[in-house]
């Protein structure tokens, strides 16, 4: 039961992230990538005891991609806005 609930919460996070991005409520930035990371983590936890290795592997890769994106975002230098006259 615990693993099912954890997996469902992860699935909901994926949907929330996708809906927010698709409706332009958020950008592809920290929030979106952290939602993806935690969603993948929770779904992987939910899948592990079920021996659903193909889905578990997908979530591990999904989480790694999100972490890479977070690292890249943190390494970006802030851009200065230029005043247009």
Topology:
Blueprint: H1 2-22, H2 30-47, H3 53-75
Helix pairs in contact: 1-2, 2-3
Number of strands: 0
Overall, the morphology is elongated
Structure classification: mainly alpha
Radius of gyration: 16 Å
Helical proportion? Answer: over 70%
Low-confidence stretches: none
The percentage of residues in β strands lies in under 5%
Largest β sheet strand count, sense and barrel closure:
none
Distance between the termini: 61 Å
Total helices: the number is 3
Task: Provide the succession of SSEs.
Answer: HHH
Number of domains: 1
Mean pLDDT: 92
Which features would summarize this protein structure in a list?
85 residues, mainly alpha, 73% helix, 0% strand
What would your notes on this structure say?
With 85 residues, the chain is mainly α. The chain has one domain (2-75). Helices cover 73% and strands 0% of the residues. The protein has three helices and no strands. The chain has helices at 2-22, 30-47, 53-75. Helix 1 runs antiparallel to helix 2. The longest helix has 23 residues, at 53-75. It is elongated. It starts with a helix and ends in a 10-residue tail after the last helix. The mean pLDDT is 92.
